[in-house]
Amino acid sequence: EAPDIDDVTLVSFVRQNEALYHAIRAAVAGEQRPDGSTPEAIIQAFRSAFNDKQECAVMVSLDGRTKVKATHLLSLGASTATVVDVKDVCHYAILDQARSVVLVHCHPSGDPKPSPADVSVTRRVKEALALLDVMLVDHIILGYTSYSFAAEGQI
Fold this sequence. Notes:
Largest sheet: 5 strands, mixed
Radius of gyration: 16 Å
Mean pLDDT: 79
Structural class: alpha+beta
Strand order of the largest sheet: 2-1-3-4-5
Number of strands: 5
Distance between the termini: 55 Å
Low-confidence stretches: 1-11, 28-32
Strand content: 15-25%
């Protein structure tokens, strides 16, 4: 019996997201973890992991020497939006014993300009992490180019 369209769609969705998850994990895998001290290092690590079909958000936990401790896929969204739950960011920061955090997400449209929602979530995450004595060092948006809140003086 041939699967109906819902089954085909579900299988396709799972395969796409599994590939994305593995690409993100591969971006920071290996013995030589990337340096998280500059936006360029994070951008280089994640540029190939994101696709142009859906927004997704990743959290990078850093140690006291700005080396990557862990990465977490926070959200897989639609083509124009994704949701970052501040509670999840705080939860992972505590579990990872992170000293600092970088948020990274993509804009499939290619335009990395932050939306009002991007600005709002950045502010809320920064405030919540500060209560835990964890610093939000950057929020990077990837598109055809990239936008770094830190490089633009917005953190």
